[in-house]
Amino acid sequence: MARHAVALSLALLSSACFGIGRKPVGEVYLAPEAPDRGPDFSNALYQTTAVRLQSGNSVDFINNGNVFDAMVAEIAKARRSIHIVSFIWADGEVSKRLMTAIAARARAGVQCRILVDAVGSLSLTDEEVAPLTGAGCKVRRSRPVPGQDDLARNHRKIVLVDGRVGITGGFGIDDRWRGDGVSGESWRDSNVRVRGPAVLEMQQAFAENWQETTQELLPADAFPEPERPGKVRAAFVSSTEHGIVTHNDRLTQLFIAAAHERIWLANAYFLPSEPILQLLERKARQGVDVRILAAGDKTDTGPYLGPQRERMDRLIAAGAKAYEYEPSMMHSKTMLVDRSLVAVGSCNLDPLSLNKMDEGALVADDPALAKQLERQWTQDLSHAKERGKPRGQVADTRR
Hints:
Blueprint: H1 7-17, H2 38-49, E1 54-61, H3 66-76, E2 81-86, H4 93-107, E3 111-117, H5 130-133, E4 138-142, E5 157-161, E6 165-169, E7 191-195, H6 198-214, E8 232-239, H7 247-258, E9 262-267, H8 274-285, E10 289-295, H9 305-317, E11 321-325, E12 333-337, E13 341-345, H10 351-355, E14 359-365, H11 367-381, E15 384-386
Parallel strand pairs: 2-3, 3-4, 9-10, 10-11
Antiparallel strand pairs: 1-7, 1-8, 2-5, 5-6, 6-7, 8-14, 9-12, 11-15, 12-13, 13-14
Helix pairs in contact: 2-7, 3-4, 7-8
């Protein structure tokens, strides 16, 4: 049965690849340099995306299929609310497992609200969501087609429990994400679990989507006083279609502009705009360690490979390194800058995501978290082919 790769989804993605939804000539170029960390970076982030880094957060990487174990564990603790927005939700073992966990809490009186994108989750039927609706959970489809702008999909992936813990990343509620990202058809993806003030920004992103779809506001207790269980300075940056420049575009340019030592971008669909490409070229020529990791031959969107490789070759000519993940579909969306700046979320670097889709990313300034992502990069590069190198040659993982 066709799931995510339904005809309409492919039509939208393929059209975006070749320019539909792309900004016209005169794309927005942001400042080519920015502070790399500390209060100055937080100030730059606020001026760029309207959110500030706040201390008191704890952030854990939860990669590949382990993300569903984390979801079920957190859902089991829910006392007031469970809120989920997902671009992809498809029937299968993962879906049934999550639905069982959510339905149990809904029957116990927990308010459960779920949004799925009408295109990304086109195959999900009313019969398949009956365990949720039968338990009292509200399930809605975001932005039915045809609509005002059928390219402006809700691509966010957010799971929230009681407004106190949030999970975000590149995952879909689909069996393709349940494995280890290396073997079989298991997709490779990066996700994070967050506790602390940044969770309220994730809740706000859900709330605006819920209000748009249902004309309902969340109750006041959906936004509790934040706990501060850790020391990580973090924020959640949400992005939506703007007409001129989205927060996804702004955040990407800010991160690149802040790099003095390294900028490592892992992204499933590497088709960045001209301003982003020029920033990456500039940094590479300045001696910054610029690395790109993207999907390879096992991509789910074949038409992207040609344009992606053209962009990679352009960056390689400027001194960057580029890699394609080989074992399976590489679906991560992460940024690592210097020794402490990290971003993990749903934000692709293609015209559709940069210009049209609702997106979100957890941003943090924390050396320990950056070290975790660096270790994940080393692992991923051991399964990647460096572009421009003979097949079989080990990817360069040195700093």
